[in-house]
Design goal:
With 883 residues, this protein is of the alpha/beta class. The chain is built from 31 helices and 25 strands. The strands form six sheets. An eight-stranded parallel beta sheet has the order 11-10-7-6-5-4-3-12. Strands 18, 19, 20, 21, 22 and 25 form a six-stranded antiparallel beta sheet that branches.
Length: 883
């Protein structure tokens, strides 16, 4: 391979390793990013000069930053360094995830650069098109081991993708094989996750295979990725880089993106550190990560870390098991459980004895408000691992005797058909299991038939339904009707974010002759289930619930509620804009735009942490909750553990964030918003049928409808649409946690994915306001101001109070082509992946969020006519707004 700046750089099969300077990369250097973002390109040029001076033979230039015009920044920076002979003498690696940025760089760089990167992630057609263009521009290319299924993480996947890419490039694109460089993906090691232990070995062996089987091809990698687990500990990171490179270069690594000034000498690494690092890099022993983590603290602090307090290990096995359960400590649980098994006559006695005694302590502390949900879920993780150790022995005994002890009761739980949200359901299941209930969790999107057949098959004592979106309410009522038709007797438990005590009493319970109980949160689940299955408590509890629900129904029937005015009167009191005096802002660009593999670290800056604590049933505003006298300690702990898992998710690339947005020409037509196919506004792509507030409003207050914020047909206006997710790839990690019986980490990861999805929506909305639509180009709001919604415009989401009709998501997703970024809808209009947000963009300065509330029969009929659906179908869609 021959590359060139002002001077040529030849990289042959027998050449020494080529250093690629990484510090001119905004994603790899905070200092460089700050300089570029502040407009200090002179300072940014000095970073490049330092890299070359420190021995970089190629410099990697990347401008992929959310708040940058990446294309303009790339062109400006490459143009500047072209005038600096001591920098321009080395070749440039044009690095971007955006093809338009790469192509802009190729048009202005001198010499022969190298493109970083192209891949098969969007299929063979796009891959070959980009490869042919790279060749036409006279550049070499780095090919990522990434295909339609995602990044390659094993030796088999790495080599398979590289072979396929090589054959396509050489045979179909006519690409010179000597100008092909493969990047088989350097991933973080020593993360504490067993699956990651062989990542370095897989990379090294894939490098060896590529050099042996793909003639003339070279190999590169982002070296700093391998040490992400030790961010902040530079001596250990440098040692990991040095050891990893030592072995990778021997296997045939040609070049690597690395801070050339921070590489050490293999033989000069302190011997004990080198041994422990090598154990991790080469995956030579099962405890390699733990040993390096322990030693790393001494390197970082230049002194031994404080030893763990193991005084509790001196107690009896029963005391140790109880302590581990209460504190959520898993490190010794298997050995202590085995010791207890040896002590007790039967393995089931370990569960019924010391383990349940420990969980009873947890339950008492939880009930007394001295423990909180995150701690309980961690206790459940300990319990599951202990039970997991005992299960083979229990099964063997059961096979011999037919008896292995019985749970308090069996409950079938499911998220109903059309709905995919399950964090709350999972937490309820964990808490019930902690209290010796057998839980059969059917998962999400479960039809009524399967739920009830499972309950009958297993002789379940209880049935529990969960749902988040409003269509789930009707599905729950359907399940209740089916239970009545089948003459079932099991109590029906109702829970989920859209459910309520009133709705359960008024809309669900009347459909079933058996007992129906609303369970507001996980902390109530055990008490409800125990009361329903108790011979002594059941009768009184059922009578109390029945009387309460009778009272609620009577109150609801006699409730006057807000006065509903005629639809015509509500429309006469619409919010008005003087469209002759106000000109809607013209977008800088219209049409559709995709965002793939968005940097999770960047998105995370926009997280609103308040709802994170609500997911764990901890109440209070953030950050004040961290100092709350009651829940502060629990909040601080779950926040710290959430932050730690978030770092692992970002550094380990556990999740992929994709999104799509568009800005379309639009006009209001009555209460509808017509969204047009193009700027001619002659053909509506779809009509969005909105609802108007119909309750009597105080003097001077309008009856709002979202259509009020969009100009009528006499004036040009636009609306935007978006759909984003941060949940792609989560199933794999959840399966790992499930296999490890680690509900706590699974629930934590789901909660974090939800927060990242919301943060992604916030990030993209800011980008739309400031850059893409551009009506708030000078906006400078911090995250607190964004959370308080101090920006201009709104982004209402289907299913929320201003836009209660979920079905508009079908049109939104279709015209965004959301499936192209991995997002789909269920039949109930829930989004997949579950960590997702979608909605519309409005630019009007007076646009605001509001609640439609109750509507009248005249508006229901009007909506049905506008939407072209039967009245009954419209009534089902709008049931929550019909009182």
């Amino acid at each position: 391979m021959r590359l060139a700046g002002l001077e040529p750089l030849a990289i042959a099969d027998d050449s020494l390793f080529a250093n690629v300077g990484e510090r001119t990369n905004v994603t790899g250097s905070r200092a460089f990013a700050r300089l570029v973002l502040s407009g200090d390109f002179a300072g940014a040029v000095e970073v490049a000069r330092q890299q070359v001076g420190n021995g970089a033979q190629i410099i990697d230039v990347n401008m992929d930053e959310a708040m940058l015009d990446s294309k303009a920044a790339m062109v400006r920076f490459l143009s500047l360094i072209a005038t600096e002979p001591d920098i321009a003498r080395v070749p440039v690696m044009i690095d971007s995830s955006k093809w338009e940025v790469i192509e802009a760089g190729l048009k202005c760089v001198q010499g022969k650069p190298i493109v970083n990167s192209i891949s098969l992630k969007e299929g063979e057609e796009a891959f070959l098109r980009q490869a042919r263009l790279v060749r036409r521009y006279g550049a070499a290319v780095i090919v990522m081991a990434f295909d339609e299924k995602g990044q390659a993480d094993t030796f088999e996947r790495k080599t398979g993708i590289c072979r396929r890419s090589y054959d396509l490039l050489v045979d179909k694109a006519g690409f010179p094989p000597e100008d092909i460089v493969f990047d088989p993906n350097v991933f973080a090691i020593a993360t504490g996750i067993d699956e990651h232990n062989n990542y370095a070995v897989d990379f090294i062996e894939a490098t060896r295979w590529i050099r042996a089987h793909l003639p003339h091809a070279k190999v590169s990698g982002g070296i700093s990725n391998v040490s992400f687990s030790f961010r902040g500990n530079e001596p250990v990171r440098a040692a990991i880089h040095t050891v990893f490179l030592y072995h990778a270069i021997r296997a045939g690594l040609t070049m690597g993106i690395v801070n050339a000034g921070q590489l050490g000498v293999y033989d000069e690494i302190e011997p004990e550190l080198r041994e422990r690092v090598e154990d991790v890099v080469l995956n030579r022993r099962p405890d390699a990560t733990e040993r390096l983590v322990t030693f790393a603290e001494t390197v970082k602090a230049q002194g031994k870390a404080a030893p763990e307090d193991l005084a509790w290990r001196g107690g009896s096995v029963e005391e140790r098991l109880s302590h581990a359960l209460v504190k959520g400590i898993t490190s010794h649980i298997v050995e202590d459980t085995e010791e207890a098994r040896q002590k007790y006559a039967r393995p089931i006695q370990v569960i019924e004895g010391p383990l349940m005694a420990g969980m009873n302590v947890v339950g008492d502390l939880f009930g007394a408000g001295k423990m909180f949900l995150p701690q309980v879920v961690k206790s459940a993780r300990v319990m599951k691992q202990a039970v997991g150790h005992l299960v083979p022995f229990i099964e063997a005994e059961k096979a011999a005797s037919g008896d292995a002890g019985k749970p308090k009761g069996t409950i079938v739980v499911a998220t109903v058909k059309g709905d995919v949200h399950d964090i709350g359901k999972n937490i309820v299941g964990v808490v019930l299991q902690c209290n010796n209930f057998a839980v059969i969790d059917l998962g999400v999107m479960v039809p009524a038939k399967k739920i009830l057949e499972t309950a009958v098959e297993h002789g379940a004592d209880l049935v529990g339904l969960s749902g988040l979106i409003t269509p789930s309410l009707e599905e729950m009522a359907h399940v209740a009707r089916e239970m009545e038709r089948l003459q079932m007797k099991q109590p029906l438990l109702i829970g989920g974010a859209t459910t309520s005590r009133v709705h359960t009493a008024v809309k669900i319970a009347p459909n079933y002759g058996g007992v129906t109980v609303y369970v507001p949160d996980a902390s109530r689940a055990v008490g409800v289930a125990s009361s329903l299955l108790s011979d002594d408590l059941r009768e009184g509890y059922v009578a109390e619930v029945a009387a309460d629900y009778d009272r609620i129904r009577a109150q609801h029937a006699g409730k006057k509620g807000p006065t509903i005015i005629p639809l015509a009167a509500a429309r006469a009191n619409a919010f008005a804009t003087d469209w002759k005096a106000y000109a809607p802002p013209v977008p800088l660009a219209t049409g559709r735009r995709e965002f793939r593999n968005v940097d999770l670290a960047e998105i995370a800056r926009y997280i609103d942490w308040g709802p994170f604590f609500q997911a764990w049933e901890l109440s209070g505003p953030f950050p004040a909750i961290l100092d709350d006298p009651l829940v502060g300690e629990a909040a601080r702990n779950v926040y710290a553990e959430g932050q730690a898992l978030l770092r692992k998710a970002i550094e380990g690339r556990w999740l992929t964030a994709n999104g799509v947005m568009a800005i379309w020409p639009a006009n209001a037509v009555g209460d509808d918003i017509e969204i047009y196919a193009d700027d001619t506004r002659t053909k509506a792509a779809f009509s969005w049928h909105n609802l108007r507030q119909q309750n009597e409003r105080p003097p001077g207050k309008a009856n709002f409808c979202l259509a009020d914020f969009v100009a009528p047909k006499e004036h040009a206006d636009w609306v935007g649409g978006f759909a984003v997710t941060a949940g792609l790839g989560i199933e794999r990690k959840l399966a790992e946690f499930e296999a490890a019986k680690d509900d706590y980490s699974a629930i934590m990861l789901k909660a974090l994915a939800d927060r990242l999805a919301e943060a992604f929506a916030e990030w993209l909305h800011a980008k739309v306001r400031r850059e893409l639509w551009g009506y708030a180009a000078g906006e400078a709001l911090d995250n607190t101001a964004l959370i308080r919604e101090e920006y201009r415009g709104i982004r209402p989401a289907p299913g929320y109070p201003a836009c209660p009709d979920h079905e508009v998501k079908a049109s939104l997703f279709a015209h965004l082509r959301a499936d192209a970024v991995g997002m789909t809808l269920t039949e109930g209009f829930a989004m997949l992946p579950t960590a997702a947000v979608s909605g519309f963009y409005f630019s009007h300065p007076d646009s605001r969020y509001f609640a439609v509330g109750r509507i009248g029969e005249d508006q229901l009929a009007d909506f049905a006519q506008r939407a072209g659906v039967p009245r009954d179908a419209a009534a089902r869609r709008l049931a929550p707004n019909l009182g």
